[in-house]
Amino acid sequence: MKFSVIIASYLGSYPSASHQRDEKIIRAINSVLAQTFSDYEIIVVADGCQKTMEIVKDMPVRSFFIQRTALFTGGPRNKGIDESKGEYVIYLDIDDIYGRNHLQIIADQLEDYDWVWYNDIRYNPRLKIWYDNDCDIIIPYL
User: Fold this and answer.
1) How far is the CA of 62 from the CAs of 45, 106, 130, in angstroms?
2) What is the 3-state secondary structure (H, E, C) of 90-141?
3) According to the model, what pLDDT value does residue 118 have?
4) Extents of the domains making up the chain
5) Beta carbons within 8 Å of 19's beta carbon, 6+ residues apart
6) How far is it, in rounded angstroms, from Cα 7 to Cα 142?
7) pLDDT the model gives residue 141
């Protein structure tokens, strides 16, 4: 298996949480299922959130429940890594989606490199523009 797509999920409320995350997690999973590249698994890790388990129970994913961790810690992603069977691990947040050929693009790039880092593109509704959110892998995040 080439990729393990890990989706950490906490659907409870917290400051700055996006709206309709229960619908967005389905949209995120469906964006993986619609990929042109098919050598992957989807792992959903519910961070103390039984609602996540209920939503994904009939979807073609491997799902795991862990005890609630502090917000934005590595617990759910680490569990996903522990359970992954893929050669490469890729993350997807519940309120994001992949373009249809996302995994194929990464697979093609991996032919020449050991790992690949991509910036993400975000939409600013106030300014009504799309922009690159540059990810600087040299700067340590604390």
Assistant:
1) 9, 22, 33
2) EECCCCCCCCCCHHHHHHHHCCCCCCCCCCEEEEECCCCEEEEECCCCCCCC
3) 72
4) 3-133
5) none
6) 22
7) 47
For the structural domain made of 3-133, what CATH number should be given? 3.90.550.10
Question: H helices then E strands: how many in the chain?
Answer: 4, 6
Strand arrangement, sheet containing 62-66: 62-66, 40-47, 3-9, 88-91
Looking at residue 83, what is its pLDDT?
A: 97
List of residues 6+ apart from 136 with CB closer than 8 A: none
Q: What's the average model confidence in pLDDT over 58-72?
A: 89
Q: Contact 57/87 with Cβ under 8 angstroms?
A: no
Task: Indicate whether this model's pTM tops 0.85.
Answer: no
